[in-house]
Design brief:
By secondary structure, this protein is of the alpha+beta class. Helix content is 19%, strand content 27%. It has one domain: Ubiquitin-like (UB roll) (Roll), CATH 3.10.20.
């Protein structure tokens, strides 16, 4: 399984990278992707997730070839 993981805005800054390519089996959900890519960092509260540019819940499934994105909530003003 190969999944591209992208981080945006303050998440990119706090993690220190903008993306990962994960190539392991056993990742079933978006939450699993975060835990595997960032084993020593809890997912910040209110973080949004998307799979292939569609907003999803952390319990949403992932499959080979998906792009998973994590970003803080968008605010406007």
């Amino acid at each position: 399984m190969s999944i591209k993981v992208r981080y945006f805005a303050s998440l990119k800054e706090s993690i220190g990278r903008s993306e990962d390519i994960l190539g392991l089996a056993g990742m079933a959900t978006v939450g699993d992707v975060w835990r595997y890519a960032n084993p020593n960092k809890a997912l910040p509260d209110n973080t949004l997730a998307a799979v292939n540019m569609d907003y999803v819940e952390l319990s949403s499934p992932v499959k080979d070839g998906d792009e998973v994105a994590f970003f803080p909530p968008v605010t406007g003003g």
